[in-house]
Specification:
The complex is a heterodimer of chains A (about 180) and B (about 140). Chain A has about 180 residues and is α/β, with parallel strands linked by helices. Chain A is built from five helices and seven strands. In chain A, the strands form two sheets. Chain A has a five-stranded mixed sheet. In chain A, strands 1-2 form a two-stranded antiparallel ribbon. Chain B is elongated. Classes of the chains: A alpha/beta (about 180), B mainly alpha (about 140).
């Protein structure tokens, strides 16, 4: 009996260490999205070009009929150039990628696209950041996967790495394409 | 000179994250906005409230809070508006719900368990019954007394 009592604090200590060890492996920056399996919040945003022919923006209503990626980026975002080649590859593989430039001047977004290339089917500008708040965006880049019926099915926080694309998002996109 | 410096130092107040251009004209509404902002976590700098944070997103959220209040929304509805977008994580004080029962009840369970263990331990430590004095011991005690 006494031996068990003696082991009790040791056991409690080990349990606590295990608890904290697991806690340390979790990234506190990654917040679960409130939008999973819910419809994309309504928005209608202008394009990034201020002159005609520069491409229109888009609205949330456009997100039906086929699964799409909705990527939040900004010219001032440090991790976006790192993600950019992956987005180019995704669009090269035939998956539609839409971009929202978050809290970015349209001129800066245009310069950024001119410098790195355009992986997006369409680009919209969210200069005030209000649409991003409706989407629950906490930083850039973030990417939402929207299904055929306009519901958000997955959210990637931070850049999409080639591994995340191959192992998680591409299989999901293929699954969403097969869905009725 | 020293006194003047001291007086100046005493006059300073901590810098506010809330910028004058964000503030509402109605002091009562502004006070409510400040109280709500102090309860909402900044999602960029996670251990600060949006009332304390200088992050651009915290500023945007402060403005959203003020907009909702100006629209005539209640404090609860304004909080719910933010929670709907960012989840319960933004509440610096977590709500009591099934997922947080362990969190809220935990300290009391530990306290209760510890109390019970202490009670059991102190009971068991009660000294064993003392044998009555033998006749010789009693006689010796009488002699000393």
């Amino acid at each position: 009996m006494n031996r068990i009592l003696f082991l009790l604090p040791v056991g409690a200590f080990i349990a606590l260490v295990a608890f904290f060890a697991i806690g340390l492996t979790k990234d506190p920056k990654v917040l679960p999205s409130q939008l999973i399996d819910r419809p994309l919040p309504q928005f209608a945003l202008p394009g990034i070009a201020d002159q005609p022919g520069g491409g229109p923006g888009f609205a949330s209503a456009a997100f039906t009929g086929e699964p799409r990626l909705l990527n939040i980026f900004a010219s001032w975002c440090a991790a976006c150039p790192q993600e950019h080649p992956v987005l180019t590859r995704i669009s090269g593989e035939g998956f539609p990628v839409y971009g929202i430039a978050w809290k970015d001047k349209p001129q800066d977004s245009r310069d950024w696209i001119a410098r790195f290339g355009n992986p997006y089917r369409q680009i919209a500008a969210d200069e005030t950041g209000r649409t991003a708040i409706d989407l629950g965006v906490t930083g850039v880049p973030e990417t939402f996967i929207v299904d055929k019926r306009g519901r958000v099915r997955f959210k990637q926080i931070g850049p999409i790495s080639p591994e995340v694309w191959e192992k998680t998002i591409r299989p999901l996109m293929q699954q969403l394409r097969a869905e009725a | 000179m020293k006194r003047a410096l001291l007086a100046l130092m005493l006059l300073t107040a901590p810098a506010l994250a809330v910028q004058p251009d964000e503030m509402l004209k109605d002091p009562a509404l502004e006070a409510r906005a400040r109280a709500i902002s102090a309860e909402l976590r900044c999602v960029v700098c996670q251990n600060q409230s949006i009332d304390d944070s200088d992050a651009p997103l915290a500023r945007d959220l402060r403005i959203v809070v003020r907009e909702q209040l100006t629209l005539g929304k209640s404090d609860q509805d304004t909080m719910a508006y933010i929670v709907q977008r960012y989840g319960n994580f933004v509440l610096l004080k977590p709500p009591v719900e099934p997922a947080t029962w362990a969190l809220w009840a935990g300290p009391f369970l530990v306290l209760g368990g510890g109390g019970l263990a202490l009670l059991g331990w102190s009971r068991r430590r009660k000294p064993a019954d003392v044998a009555p004095l033998t006749a010789a011991e009693a006689a010796e005690l009488d002699r000393l007394g």
